[in-house]
Amino acid sequence: GFTLVELLVVIATIGILVALLLPAIGSVRQSAMRTQCANNMRQIGLAMLLYTDAHGGRMPESQHTVSEGKKAWIDSLSPYTEDVDVIRMCPSDPYGPERVAVRETSYVMNAYVTTEAPEEERCTDRDLMSDSQTMWAFEIAGHAKPGSEFTDHVHSMWWFSAGERTDIVFNMAFEKHVQGAIDTARHGEGSNYLYLDGRVEFIDEETIAGWCKHNPNNFGNVVFNFVLPSPGYPPDG
Questions:
Q1: pTM for the structure as a whole
Q2: What is the overall mean pLDDT for the chain?
Q3: Which residue from 24, 93, 191, 218 has the fewest beta carbons nearer than 10 Å?
């Protein structure tokens, strides 16, 4: 039989092995959820491309501009994907089940591709945009509860103002900020971003912070704008 000392050694060894394995298991799980989220966004991007092709380049309407009783923009994509309910939620969204119950999504559209942005700045016709530079959708902020104002699209036109542009864009985009609209670290060190050409990129939070705080000339092709940078852009206001 085992002596007490031998039994304690075995228990201690098992405990050490479990302690070593748990972080690895957590990392694998996080990676799997990040991959699933990216796959969801790719399928949404493909459905978006099919939708705009079928509607002469026009984007789906946002929840604020459709008639009463309509659901989130993602439901407009239902005819163009096998099962929109499978792809509407990020597995890491803390409010996932609650959003499903009210027909919302974990992904928020860029205001500049909706009618929510000022008329002189928005562009709801995909044919007039830069597909490889425009961000179509972001991952919703973790604190944005279902049914709140920012669950359909972000008000990206509020993310900057003259004189304070670099700080405001960073803070308004940052999930941990009290008014953050998107989650820049949903999957560990970063989040997934859907572009207008249907591709999805994982961008780490530090990179987003650098773009916003240190390189304002990149605004046009990195965070929210709908066209390539041009002289005098972003607008002062």
A1: 0.74
A2: 75
A3: 24
